[in-house]
Amino acid sequence: MAILYALVARVSVVLAEFSGTSTNASAIARQILEKIPGTNDMNVSYSQDRYIFHVKRTDGLTVLCMADDTAGRRIPFAFLEDIHQRFVRTYGRAVLSAHAYAMNDEFSRVLSQQMEYYSNDPNADRINRLKGEMSQVRNVMIENIDKVLERGDRLELLVDKTANMQGNTFRFRKQARRFRSTVWWKNVKLTVALIILLLVIVYVVLGFVCHGPLLPSCLK
């Protein structure tokens, strides 16, 4: 999966989170929440190894995800925007006073579903490009995580590579099924076209042999 981990928090209080693989991203995400400066709205990204932590903070609500560096920026920030809207629409002002993990039982399922959608469904990126949204993401600089965390405090990111490979295998199987389906339909169309062509040739040959107008009598 391109997006491996996500959370929603008020300041440093985590309200919901979900991880799609075995990883210590949760501990690193908490460090980031405690260290990111100020209270202003922001879009920022921090890299560690071949993974990037993307952060979107709006009106005191922070949505964070960890994605593979191959995911780029548009898809992760489209995911963060989507999650922010869903969370606010679902819980409203309750987020201002909710205790830690108050929404986790319900909203972790939403995080899981949307992570799957934005990681594997090509429509996720296509829709955002058609809408022309997320243009501000182009200005988001990807900084090394040492910019926000002291080197001595930084945890080594651990990610279960097996789960990542399973996600890649799942995408490969979907692409393979789609390819086989496309090839099958092409073969069907080609077969039908050849049958029609053969019938036309037989009809023309019979017409020529039987001198056209004599065709009905020739067939008796």
From TrEMBL:
PROSITE patterns associated with the record: LONGIN, SYNAPTOBREVIN, V_SNARE
Any single GO BP term: protein transport
Ranges of residues in domain V-SNARE coiled-coil homology: 126-186
Transmembrane feature ranges: 190-210
Topological relation to the membrane, as annotated: Single-pass type IV membrane protein
Keyword Hydrolase: no
Keyword annotations from UniProtKB, A to Z: Coiled coil, Membrane, Protein transport, Signal, Transmembrane, Transmembrane helix, Transport
Span of the signal peptide: 1-16
Chief place where the protein resides: membrane
Subcellular localization(s) per the UniProt record: Prevacuolar compartment membrane; Vacuole membrane
Gene Ontology CC: one annotated term: vacuolar membrane
Residues in Longin domain copies: 7-111
Domain of life of the source: Eukaryota
PANTHER family per UniProt: SNARE PROTEINS (PTHR21136), VESICLE-ASSOCIATED MEMBRANE PROTEIN 711-RELATED (PTHR21136:SF172)
Entry function: Involved in the targeting and/or fusion of transport vesicles to their target membrane.
Family recorded in the similarity comment: Belongs to the synaptobrevin family.
Full protein name: Vesicle-associated membrane protein
Gene source species: Actinidia chinensis var. chinensis (Chinese soft-hair kiwi)
Higher taxonomy: Eukaryota, Viridiplantae, Streptophyta, Embryophyta, Tracheophyta
